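Write out the bound-state structure for 6-O-phosphono-beta-D-glucopyranose.
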Amino acid sequence: MSDTPILSAPEKPQIPIGFVIFGVTGDLTRRKLIPALYQLAVADQIPEDLHIIGFARRDWDDETMQAKMRAGVLEFARRKPVDDAVLDRLLGSMRYVRGSFDDPEAFARLHTLLDDIKAENRLFYLATPPSAYSAIIQNIGASDMASCPSGWVRVVIEKPYGHDLASALELDAVVHKVFAEEQVYRIDHYLGKETVQNILVFRFANGIFEPLWNRNYIGCVQITVAETVGVGTRAGYYESVGVMRDMFQNHILQLLTLTAMEAPVTFNADAVRDEKLKVLRALPPLQGAKARENTLRAQYSAGKVAGQDALGYKDEQGVAKDSDTETFLAARLEIDSWRWAGVPFFVRSGKRMPQRVTEIAIQFKQVPLPLFGWRNLAGDAPNQLILNIQPEEGITLTFGAKQPGPVNQISPVEMHFSYDETFGGSPPEAYERLLLDAMNGDATLFTRSDEVQEAWRFTTDILDAWEEEPIKKLPTYAAGTWGPASMDEFLQRHDQQWRKI
Ligand code: BG6
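---
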């Protein structure tokens, strides 16, 4: 057994680094990447000679890029007020290369710049629409930038990684022509969330939960990823993905693997990912009628979220009036393994839900003999362990307690751990951890090629089944509700009920 601590403290990355962002003019860079780099700089976790190079088509120069990124940090930095000295230093390192993603000359200019600033270690970050990925990767290869004799070269690829299994395989083929798998860092930002990382710590650094973590004691697992936001300005993207490709194939399946995986033999990238992969491989395929029976999809109609009127999906800007894109999904999954055989995993995710909440609820089995008629009193199963991923990060254990008094009246009560109360302050943003890990060469929190393929294999079967027998009228749910009317019935069929949040 290795003696590596389960979460080793990230070190300062090796220097000097050329951090190249393709698609630097987009929202992701301004809202997430640069504010995360700024926050790392405040914490003195990135080297001073980190050179940030933006690459995009827009008619910007170094000064424009610096001004835009300054505005991004001022608006989106996690901790304010912003430290001007740190920000100025970060901005001072920024350079802009103007070019189109299929222009070899622009890539040659980028290469020259990286050589000029002596960026011996290179991180290429693809923050563009996925349609540009292949051209960028091929041009990195063609311009001889995929390796560097004096340092490392890595590529970070944003989601969506493919649109289905076939396109993910095609993309992988392009990627692997240029990069070795060890150089590839596929982002799923849920893995960078503190509370998601804590799933493994909770399970494998504590002795008391793991013995119960199996089919003998767990009756069902419910994973909820609910958002209050609608499609916003992203209809162009969302119309072609829906919640299945946008949330299920990646974030939800990742939460599932971390909840269900076996303990890795050691805590390194491959050992952890090997175990996650086994979970994905143990999902019995949902195909044809079985897929349709075990999934429920719907679309939001007009309603109210947090007291505010919300448009129906079809009335959102950029959405087709006859769109049948699903904005809500519930599914029943199984895992065919010794640990989980017979335990249903219910997942649900949707936009325009009443509350923003991501949680994993482990429902333990009822006592063998219900002496106190508990179930009627409490509604839910009495013992639930809830991993609150966001926004109130923490862990809650529910159980029954006797109410004081002469009769055996039982109440559901909670033991609760809150990140905020215990550790104070806001936890780091997912991108802070992920960018640092990518610079440090730790791929544990990034998805590996075989893992992504397996997730797509499972998801594509369901998408195919939906296409085989298109739904005539997609069920709807009013914005601000927990899903369509058939939602409860979907679970009752399996003698379960959704946890009330
Ligand atoms: C993204 C999806 O991956 O995750 C978005 O594309 C979604 O549609 C977002 O809103 C949710 O992320 P978070 O961190 O806010 O839960």
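---
The longest strand covers residues 218-226.
The longest helix spans residues 449-468.
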